[in-house]
Design a protein that fits this description.
single chain, alpha/beta, five-stranded parallel beta sheet, two-stranded antiparallel sheet
């Protein structure tokens, strides 16, 4: 049995992934019985769209699969090492990991591709004790939420542009829900309308117990 366990944070932009990630890190650090070995990879190490030296580049299907496989291979190496050492307390030998925008992001971005390869990745993550938290927002607050992070940037936008951005968020959110239903990794959907980040983090940690 693996001595790893971890959370995959999924959700469209403005759903609160960064804020929940901060709460999760703090909560894990304050738990004296928790793993001393922790890996946290933000979306910059796993997402499809990357800002490469100021230029936005979208990974191809094959490139993104390779990227995810490399991240999973890292976890596999740690799992094999902990198995070699033998079982011990969670604090001393366990590894806690958090990944952001991972398998569901891939399924949605390449929905026209076959899923056998991403399914293999999901099975490995499941073996490593992975659970998924899909962060969502309600349709009625979508326009407010997308403007809340950088309000000055939206001052010159028309109501049509704001609505279009909100519609894109909600459409992608629906696709993520459908992708989660097809994944072998257990997924908890959390509505983040109230921005109660610590409460959401506690719900997510309970997934792993």
């Amino acid at each position: 049995m693996s001595q790893l366990r971890g959370i995959i944070l999924e959700g469209f932009s403005h759903a609160g992934k960064t804020s929940v990630l901060k709460s999760l890190k703090l909560m894990q650090a304050q738990d004296e019985s928790a793993e001393r070995s922790v890996i946290v990879l933000s979306e910059h190490y796993s997402q499809v769209l990357h800002n490469v030296r100021g230029k936005f580049i979208t990974s191809s299907h094959e490139e993104h699969l390779q990227l995810l496989n490399e991240r999973v291979a890292m976890l596999k190496q740690l799992d094999e090492w902990s198995t070699k050492l033998g079982r011990a307390s969670r604090g001393s030998r366990g590894v806690f990991f958090i990944l952001e925008r991972f398998h569901l992001n891939h399924r949605v971005a390449y929905s026209d591709k076959k899923n056998n390869e991403i399914e293999a990745i999901e099975k490995e993550l499941l073996h490593f004790g992975a659970k998924c938290a899909l962060l969502t927002i309600s349709p009625e607050i979508a326009e407010l939420r997308i403007q809340s992070r950088t309000p000055d940037e939206w001052l010159s936008k028309s109501s049509e542009e704001i609505k279009a951005a909100a519609d894109e968020l909600l459409a992608t959110q629906l696709k993520l829900r459908k992708a989660a239903a097809s994944s072998v990794i257990p997924t908890l959907e959390i509505n983040t309308d109230n921005k109660a980040w610590d409460t959401y983090a506690k719900e997510i940690i309970r997934l792993l117990d």
